[in-house]
Structures are given as structure tokens and as C-alpha cells.
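User: Predict the complex.
Assistant: Input components as received:
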Amino acid sequence: AQSVTQLGSHVSVSEGALVLLRCNYSSSVPPYLFWYVQYPNQGLQLLLKYTSAATLVKGINGFEAEFKKSETSFHLTKPSAHMSDAAEYFCAVSDGNNDMRFGAGTRLTVKP
Amino acid sequence: GAVVSQHPSRVICKSGTSVKIECRSLDFQATTMFWYRQFPKQSLMLMATSNEGSKATYEQGVEKDKFLINHASLTLSTLTVTSAHPEDSSFYICSARDGGQGAGEAFFGQGTRLTVV
């Protein structure tokens, strides 16, 4: 069975600073990996996904993530944080079936 | 991208009554939909996988008689919380995957905030 671990339930950065949200996965088969963002009282919106093509994946809103098989990681980054990036971020993993499992989430706070 | 519509967005009901939540895929067919429950400031907990034309697959610890799921068509799945109690108050989210298994991303409804009083 696959799973993901998000290190850090809460990350706080200053506006304009680098954003780094960590995600490590466990999967017995080559995984498909996803990052989603959730704003208060809303569903989840896909930021980006890794599907075994390029290891560096670019997503919406300036976010990107790099798949590192040797480290079983798929960390999410953004060079310069914006106030509007404050939200909950979820990493998810899927195997070849329909099942998708989510990490515990990381709440990003952006300080002015 | 594909759209999943969930209704209602908010519902308040009395203890002991039942509440139905609808999840529709608007521009694609979803043979499988997923129902999640989310507690405040926590992650999504998969409750069940809804399969069109067959019985839902429930996760361990989820009461199937409590949370009734029906997936009568390729675009509609419903979750009915039966005999609701205050502890059932939560945020419920549905999702559907487009583009097949594995690599297909999941599209989420906007969620339903259920409050049982």
C-alpha cells in the first residue's frame, strides 16, 4: 500500500521568501504523485502532478516539485511567497489503481 | 479542467434526521468517485470508494449503514448520512478521477459543511 508523509504540519514564511513544503512517499510500484491546495471551506485544487515523465514538474501559481526516487521525495517549492499562497497543502500518491492517499497536510502561513 | 459539483455546500440538520449530499461530474464520466471526511485542521480521511452500478467499498472503521452511498449513474454519486448525530458534524468532500487510473488527477467538489444540532 502506498502512503505519503508530510514533514511539518505548519510552515511560516515571509512574503517574498522561498517556500519549501516537504513530502516523502512510500510505494511498492512506481508512484504517481500530486500536490493539492485547499483554501478555507473549499475543495482541493490540483497544483501539479508527477506521472513518470520529467522529474521536475511545474504547476500553477509558480509552484514546482521535483521527484527524487533515491530520496523517495516530492517536495513542493516556490521561489517567492505571496500572501495569496496562504492555504493548506496536501501531497498525495496513487498507484496504478484508482486509490489515492493523502498526507496529513501542511498549513502555509505567509507573513507580510 | 474537469468539474465536480457538490451540493449542498452547507447543511444544518437536527439530530436523528438524514442528510443527502450529491456529487456530480459535470463534463466527464466517472465510474469511480471517492468520499472523504475532513475534521478541522486535519487531512482528508477516505471514507469510501463509490463504484457506478455496484456497491461502494468502505474503508475500515466507516459504518456502511450509517453512511449510505449510491452511484446510480456515471455522473452522480450520493452520500446519505443516516440518523445523524452531532459527532457526524464535519466537512465532507467528494472527488472523481478523470483520464483513467493511476495518473489521472482527482477533481474535487467544493465540499459540504454538515452541522448536526
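The interface with chain B takes residues 32, 34, 36, 41-46, 49, 51-52, 90, 92, 94-105, 107 of chain A (CB under 8 Å).
Let me know if you want any component modeled separately.
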